[in-house]
Amino acid sequence: MIGIIGAMASEVDGLKELMENKTVDVISGVEFCCGSIGGKNIVVAQAGVGKVNAAVTAQTMILKYNTKAIINIGVAGGINPTLNIGDIVIADRTVEHDMDTTAVGDAPGFITGIDRVYMDCDKEISELMYQVSKDMGIHTIYGVVASGDIFVSEDSVRNKIANIFNGAAAEMEGGAIGHVCTMNNVPFAVLRAMSDCANNDSVVDFPAFAQKAAKTSIEIITEFLKRYKG
Ligand code: ADE
Active site includes 11? Predict the structure, then answer.
């Protein structure tokens, strides 16, 4: 079983509509929708926005459904200068840009316990998602997906994510899912379509473009599931 997590309804509803033989469990107020697409067994959940919601959902998927991999889909704010609205970032690594124990000597983003800043994404899944996105004619890059409990719409935060973490895109869940999956030795990947450019225009761009960007990420994951052999 592969787990797929989105934060908002627009990021998962289109996928749920395509699923066959659906059953639903509600745990911690989150709906876990089990079924299949392209002959692959999947569990899809709308976690809600932010790192804690994402972490609870990822951990539940691992314990209850024994997911062999978790993929985070949805929208993000583009930070890499080549990115426009509608483009795709496939994470090679994730980071929690708001994790900060620098005052006691740690590196920015350092997670005590697992003792690392960046979480490595699964290569096989990421490469196939990249290929699918490219085949659809979309500008697609690999990069660091930076997560924090903040909607990034200010230069100061954007610059911190770019300069300190080499972030390609900012969102609010992928790093938490990477964190939980790393703790549990479960492979994970992150696929994000740009709804805005994490700048002063984001408060206008996000409501205008999030639906369409979310749909693109659903189209890519659907084709991925058809091609994936794992
Ligand atoms: N998701 C989409 N756009 C975002 C932004 N600018 N900041 C955080 N999460 C986002």
Answer: yes
Question: One of 92, 98, 173, 196 is an active-site residue; which one?
Answer: 196
- For domain 2-227, give the CATH superfamily: Nucleoside phosphorylase domain (3.40.50.1580)
pTM of the predicted model as reported, rounded to 2 decimal places: 0.98
Question: Is 48's C-beta closer than 6 angstroms to any atom of ligand 1?
Answer: no
Strand locations in 51-173 (E): 69-78, 88-96, 118-120, 140-147, 167-171
From 141, 227, 226, select the one nearest 190 (Cα to Cα).
141
Radius of gyration of the chain (CA): 16
Active-site residue flag, 154:
no
225 lines ligand 1 (CB under 6 A): no
> Which sequence spans correspond to the domains of the chain?
2-227
User: Side chain identity at 157, as an amino acid letter?
Assistant: V
C-alpha to C-alpha distance for 227 and 165, rounded to whole angstroms: 32
Question: Could you give the dihedral angle defined by the CA atoms of residues 129, 131, 136 and 137, in that order, rounded to the nearest 10 degrees?
Answer: 130
**Would you write out the chain's pLDDT as a tens digit for each of its 230 residues?**
999 999 999 999 999 999 999 999 999 999 999 999 999 999 999 999 999 999 999 999 999 999 999 999 999 999 999 999 999 999 999 999 999 999 999 999 999 999 999 999 999 999 999 999 999 999 999 999 999 999 999 999 999 999 999 999 999 999 999 999 999 999 999 999 999 999 999 999 999 999 999 999 999 999 999 999 98
- CA torsion, points 103, 173, 63, 227, in degrees to nearest 10? -140
In ligand 1, the atom with minimum distance to the C-alpha of 148 is 8
